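Long-time lurker. I teach an intro course on protein structure, and each term I like to show students one example going from raw sequence to a predicted 3D structure in token notation. This year I'd like something fresh instead of my usual example. Would anyone be willing to generate the tokens for the chain below so I can use it in lecture? Attribution to the forum is fine with me.
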Amino acid sequence: MKVGCLFGSFDPPHLGHIAVARYMLEHKGLDQVWLVVTPQNPFKQDRRLSPEQHRLAMVRLAVQGIPGLSANGLELDLPRPNYTADTLAFMHSRWPSQEFSLIIGSDNLASLHLWKDALGMLENTKVLVYPRSGLEEHQAQAELMYHPAVTFVPEAPQVVMSSTGIRVRLRNWKPVDGLLDPKVLAYIRQNGLYAG
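-- Reply from a regular --
Happy to contribute to a lecture. Here you go:
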């Protein structure tokens, strides 16, 4: 089985995440896409995140009823700090019959060469790259742009929204129509997340 993995803090998960996951599922020969909740991005140690159980619950709501998409909290139980290479190595050992692909934005492609054991990770994991704002700059910076394991998917939805921007809007009681699944927004309101 071919599984795409979209890692993220998902604080909160937005419709851009879902659009990319669905596109990769439908167009890149994947059987499933897992949205893997990350405890803390090693490159963003200074950022405070919402509690893990809330972020995982929101991802579960965001993928609810969408065939082929699922929330995954496996990284929450692994030793920290979490590095994608280590998590993928664990996944390959736990599910040896699965073929895993990493789904990242072009902003992450620009820094992929700085990730822990990036070249080792690319030996047994394909990388599917979707466009983000600043694409041309990302491509210019991406040392691994032409690695055989890396596939750029320019026709995938370009995600212009960000969780950071959505948190700011929610904190200031601005509308988030078209940015969040209504079930996720209801969960945020019920649990007092991102309140000003």
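Some talking points for your students: Residues 2-161 form a domain with the Rossmann fold fold (CATH 3.40.50.620). DSSP finds eight helices and six strands in the chain.
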